[in-house]
Amino acid sequence: MNTFFKSVSLIVLVFTFNACNNSNKTSQETILKGNATLLVDATLMPVMEDQIEIFENRYDAKIKMIVKSEVEVVQTLVKDTSSIAVLSRKLNPDELKIFSNRKIIPKITPIALDAVALIINKNSNDTIVDIKDVISFMNGKNTPGIKGLVFDNPNSSTVRYMNNLAGISSIPQKGVFSFGTNNEVIKFVNDNDGMIGVVGLNWLTQPRPEMQKFVDGIIIMSVKGKNQSDFFAPDQNNIAEGKYALAREIYIVNCQGFSGLGMGFASFVAGDIGQRIILKSGLLPYKVPPRKLSIRNQITNDKK
Length: 304
Prior knowledge:
The protein is an alpha/beta fold. The chain folds into 2 domains: 29-113 and 249-285, D-Maltodextrin-Binding Protein, domain 2; 114-245, D-Maltodextrin-Binding Protein, domain 2, CATH 3.40.190.10. The protein contains 12 helices and 12 strands. Strands 1, 2, 3, 4, 6, 7, 8, 9, 11 and 12 form a 10-stranded mixed beta sheet that branches. The chain has a two-stranded parallel sheet with strand order 5-10. It starts with a helix and ends in a 19-residue tail after the last strand. This is Phosphate ABC transporter substrate-binding protein. It holds the Pfam family PBP_like_2.
């Protein structure tokens, strides 16, 4: 009998310890305090670096950013090795079902409008491209004016975006190349005439100092979309007006399942300060920050 009670007591003790331990882990993190890991689609890294830096400076929080391709980000997210991610798409039904089985409803926060940018060497005479020609090339057809397409990574969000646009499941082997990073694409296009690079716009609007000379050596092409009669560059105005054909929304996907840093960081990025950071980065904020005007009833002459 004593042995039985001792065994029961031990089980209760272990259960209580584990429950307290898990409770402590959760209690150590609030919406503005603690430590968290943020998975970031590699095409969106520059602007998220700025967001994390400002967030950490304002709050008692530490966010570890892990940069991966879109496929790797989603795989890591659903494996529950991290619960917060920045993506250029929402979760699909199969991915949502995984979290539903865990009794978690992912919170999706739109934060910005980005653009898939097409770049070409500065020495090229062509600074415009019809998206129909790009789609034709990706479907294996000979297309005058396109020598080749260069992507950052076969698993990247830009590849997925362009594949969907072209109606194909994978990039063709002929005439289409992939490297490891957006910077490698920019360098390659800078050094090779006639090659069109496909990169996230943010890598061009916020280049690292060592990359500036390579960015200066390329041109961001203007694109004519389907059912359009003119060509438009991927600037904030054209993205806002829906004129640029290769625009896409950016989301923070929070799958923590509790009120932690994921909620606080998403609210920060979607708020006034975070949206101003996005505006300064060259992307389009999901909510354009208002401009405050000071109206005076009397004009005074400051020059005396």
